[in-house]
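EI: anyone free to look at a 401-residue chain?
SC: sure, send it
EI:
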Amino acid sequence: MPARRVAIIGAGPIGLEAALEAARRGFEVRVYEAGQAGEHLRRFAAIPLFTPFGMNSSLEGRERLRSEGAALPSDSTILTAGDLVERYLVPLTRLPELAASIREQERVTHVGREGLGKAAGDGRGGRGFLLRVEADGATRFDRTDFVVDATGVYGNPNATGPGGLPALGEDRLGDAIARHWDVRIHSANGPYARGTTLLIGDGHSAATALLAFDQVARADASFRVHWISRMRRVAFPEIDGDSLPARLDLARRANEIASSAPWLTRDPGVHVVAYERRGDRVRVALTDGSSLDVDRVLALVGYRPDVAMTRELQVHYCYASEGTMKLAAAILGAGAGGDCTAQVAHGPESLQNPEPDFFVLGAKSYGRNPQFLLSIGHQQVRDAFGLMGSGPGIAAPALSP
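SC: here you go
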């Protein structure tokens, strides 16, 4: 009997853990990655993570790498995003059971059921999946028995306008707007060290940006930052007894900068209405009726899943978060609040949806809910493969706690 096939879309932290588990269970594995392994983490490589290495790696992954002689950080070590890629994810891709299965620079654009449209109700579980793949300037169809969507959300940033809509003229800003972390923010000779930057956002990414701007200001750079956020609160939340000390330290340092930095102007509780290019500058109109001229925009306003790839499948997404419906309902019912450390895995049933043998794992399973933790994703992998079983002739391995 031929090995059952698993296609994993996305070679990030959860996609690679899923590939390792699939190989361990005897499946034929193929991992599709539109960029490089760990692509999204590479975009903010210099930024320290809140959570320690032990929470950002699995027991299975650590044991497997150590069996190959890898020297890994201690579980309590705080790594940068780039360090996690280079010291953990890249070594995973080089394991003998995974190296040949990872296809970088191959983008899955669509997933469907072979011979069935979206509306067909019966017999879906008896049909294989068809993946439309773009690679090397060509397009092809690949077939598989199971699909794991671990593409995350970081590649699909939110818009900056009111009500979550794009502001007028936003689509014409081009390189005047950065929608992800921009490494040039750290440079005293870079574009952010002169002129005026509009910073948009009120989460930890915005807090991290304030710290980076402050470091550049200490190098006697001449610049201004105008910071707007949808929240009217005047500070980043500081959680007493925070179980993640790095998060508490970030909030405290950012709040100190926000209250005293001479290069910073704050404008909470407003949105952008419109952008207008005026030569090398941008005129920005705000919901309070004011306007300002800036040289560039740094929009750190969060991310959302791209669900277009699965439009021909019967995947049930939450109408609010755009996470998968059963999981979104379980998260809401658990009432875990706004702290990511309060999140728990909700069992295999929460990962199922009307499309048999198709699983959304990782940050994308949470949709617009930003409280996802990698440790939750590791448990999702174990739960999903508990439903899939094992390849032919392979006994299902015991799952690690």
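EI: The radius of gyration is 22 Å.
SC: 👍
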